[in-house]
Specification:
Layout (H helix, E strand, L loop, with lengths): L16 H31 L6 H9 L7 H25 L12 H12 L7 H13 L5 H37 L1 H4 L4 H9 L20
Helix pairs in contact: 4-6, 4-8, 5-6, 6-8
């Protein structure tokens, strides 16, 4: 009786597709991450800066444009200021108070101008008198006595003009209180506004006088 030996066939290990499938997604996700990183870098390097947010874009649109040429901008600004001065100058000549400088607006300033323009002021002739005395002092080298008299007369005129300006403000202050109340006379700048106008030659005053001598405002 013969012994029969069975040889079992050699079974080779078979790779599981499941394992291959498990490793493939990992590789795919890693590749996707690398690709995303490269795209982000290229996008950043291409623009030179990261993408602005919506708020930054809106802020940039609202930001005023600054011209590159500063010289042209300064020239335009000077032209604009000159145009505004021309408008104010024409308004002071025509009497359009809405376009006058701020210092000349308001009923109090208008009342002061009318009162000063209606009054005979020593100050408005001060420049003419000073010019005459200056010419007389130039003759001092030839006629010393005339030069001394002219100098003393000049001091006298200055003193008279100061006293007259003081009287002007006293008269005007009473009228301001009667018309606008106690607080009107305490407002800063009104006295200087009246005195400076009184020392200007009548034809050179701005705003232009609208009343004649003796026509005092009510």
């Amino acid at each position: 009786m013969h012994n029969t030996t069975f040889c079992s066939p050699k079974i080779e290990p078979v790779r599981s597709d499941k394992k291959a499938k498990q490793t493939t997604p990992g590789l795919t996700e890693s590749a996707q991450e690398d690709k995303s990183l490269v795209n982000a870098q290229e996008k950043t390097e291409g623009k030179g800066r990261p993408t602005r947010s919506r708020a930054e874009a809106e802020a940039a649109r609202k930001r005023p444009l600054v011209p590159d040429d500063r010289r042209a901008a300064a020239k335009a600004q000077r032209a604009k200021a000159r145009e505004a001065r021309d408008v104010e100058y024409n308004a002071m000549k025509s009497g359009d108070e809405s376009k006058m400088p701020y210092r000349d607006r308001g009923p109090k300033k208008r009342y002061i101008r009318d009162f000063v323009d209606a009054r005979w002021n020593v100050g408005e002739y001060f420049l003419i008198i000073a010019g005459v005395f200056l010419l007389l002092t130039l003759l001092g080298s030839i006629y010393p006595t005339i030069a001394i008299i002219a100098l003393l007369s000049m001091y006298l005129v200055v003193l008279i003009a100061i006293v007259d300006a003081f009287i002007l403000w006293r008269q005007l202050k009473k009228r301001l209180i009667a018309k606008f109340g106690e607080e009107a006379a305490k407002e800063r700048g009104l006295m200087m506004y009246a005195v400076m106008r009184a020392f200007q030659f009548r034809r050179g005053r701005l705003p232009k006088p609208v009343v004649k001598h003796g026509e005092y405002p009510a």
